Amino acid sequence: MGILNALAGNLQQVGNDQLAQQYGPFLFDGEQIQSGYQLIRDAVVFTNMRIIFVDKQGATGAKARYRTIHLDSIVDVEAETAGAVADDSEINITYLKDVYQRKTGSETLDTVTLEFPKRFDIAPIYRQLGQLAMQNRQRINAR
């Protein structure tokens, strides 16, 4: 079932020990892995500071691109649960793409979608990111 989910584009949860072994060298000082998910070779790693997207490239996967969404830039989160048949669950994360534009009021937003298998409970991730988005909005609008 894991291969079918991967071919369908669904993320599968990976243990923190395995994530630390693979991606530990790319963590910042004081950064800790909270959870992570893998899609064949690519991965999404949640830490206490950011979400890291790992895009393994090439035939061997030796080359990789690491992209980050800092947690303090997340401003909205949407969840879509799986349907009765072959649907998957999704979480859409909207974030401020250019944090330096906050001062001018011309923010640029972007969205990333994470797809999970239908039996995966997305509620804890949604709650955590949603609460974070509310805190960020309050902080940003308090200025």
TrEMBL record:
Residues 3-131 form the Bacterial Pleckstrin homology domain. SUPFAM superfamilies: PH domain-like. InterPro entries: PHb, PHb_sf. It holds the Pfam family bPH_1. It comes from the Bacteria. This is PH domain-containing protein.
